[in-house]
Specification:
GPCR_Rhodpsn, 10 helices, glycoprotein, mainly alpha, Rhopdopsin 7-helix transmembrane proteins, receptor, 3-stranded mixed β-sheet, G-protein coupled receptors family 1 profile domain-containing protein, transducer, 3% strand, 74% helix
């Protein structure tokens, strides 16, 4: 055999890093500032929704859930990236790699589930307005939030439990952080079960759920086209941010879910970084600046009247 087995306790090398030389400190500072911006922007919007009772509505609660998940995802990746930038060798233990896989996939899955819940909320509000308070009551919104978190927890836990026992025949991962596909590719034995589950997981998370979201927005657009101008403006103002967030997420998530080894190294690194760096910052800014009620409360928090 060309390569010997690597025990599960061995370290894995993240091969997508390159020697930054004298630019190492500059990149570290840039990433640190991004991390501070992510924390600041998300916390301000979350605080605005929390303190203003007029924002205690399903749409804003779901936005708060989206941003809370972004904070969790940022904590799972930013400190790790900052630490790796300061190292001369970029290695991670097998156990730590699996932990990172869990949190990254959990973050992504909760994100797409939250976007689905948000599309359902807008669908009911615009297409079935008379039933909105019944369908999106506090109790039903709570159940929806539990589903958004518990279903990804079960799905990702099972995925990682399939990957954890695999014996590895290599230790090079061509990314700046661990992902499940890269770990499974290093396995020595049969990975049929992993591959089948991975295919099902990808189809559900990146095809079925987005298709359901697209269907709800098609229905919303049809209702808007047959309504008055004021209804169209109101629908556009609340749905446009969700559509932008959804499009941005899928454009970056789909390539990351498949083998992109034929792409340039720089573009691979950009894709893998953008999905965990871009959305947490841009989504908070989008909701905080675009939605008038939320923008007003955020402005009040940042510049309180004395």
């Amino acid at each position: 055999m060309a390569s010997a087995n690597v025990s599960s306790s061995s370290s894995l090398t993240l091969a997508a890093y390159w020697d930054l030389g004298s630019l190492r400190s500059l990149w570290f500072l840039f990433l640190l500032l991004l991390y501070v911006a992510v924390l600041g922007c998300n916390l301000v919007v979350i605080a605005a929704i929390f303190v203003d009772r007029s924002l205690h509505q399903p749409m804003y609660v779901l936005i708060c859930n989206l941003l809370t998940n972004q904070l969790c995802g940022s904590v799972a990746i930013y400190p790790f990236l900052l630490f790796q930038l300061l190292q001369s060798t970029h290695a991670v233990s097998h156990a730590a790699c699996l932990v990172q896989v869990f949190f990254l996939f959990f973050y992504g899955n909760v994100q797409i589930m939250t976007l689905a819940a948000m599309s359902y909320d807008r669908y009911v509000a615009i297409c079935c307005p008379l039933q909105y308070h019944r369908r999106m009551s506090s109790q039903r919104t709570l159940r929806l939030l539990l589903l958004v978190w518990l279903l990804p927890l079960l799905e990702v836990s099972f995925m990682v439990s399939l990957s954890a026992p695999l014996r590895l025949c290599g230790n090079h991962i061509s990314k700046v952080y661990c992902d499940n596909y890269s770990v499974v590719k290093l396995a020595c034995g049969d990975t049929t079960l992993n591959n089948v589950y991975g295919l099902i997981y990808t189809c559900v998370a990146l095809l079925s759920v987005p298709a359901l979201i697209l269907y709800t927005y098609v229905r919303i657009i049809r209702v808007c086209l047959s309504s008055g101008a004021s209804t169209r403006r109101k629908a556009l103002s609340t749905c446009a941010p969700h559509l932008v967030v959804m499009t941005r997420f899928n454009v970056t998530a789909v390539p990351n879910a498949f083998d992109v080894g034929n792409l340039s190294r720089v573009f691979q690194v950009f894709l893998s970084l953008y999905i965990v760096i871009g959305p947490p910052l841009l989504n908070a800014l989008l909701y905080g600046l675009n939605m008038s009620k939320l923008r007003a409360v955020c402005r009040g928090l940042l510049s309180p009247k004395i």
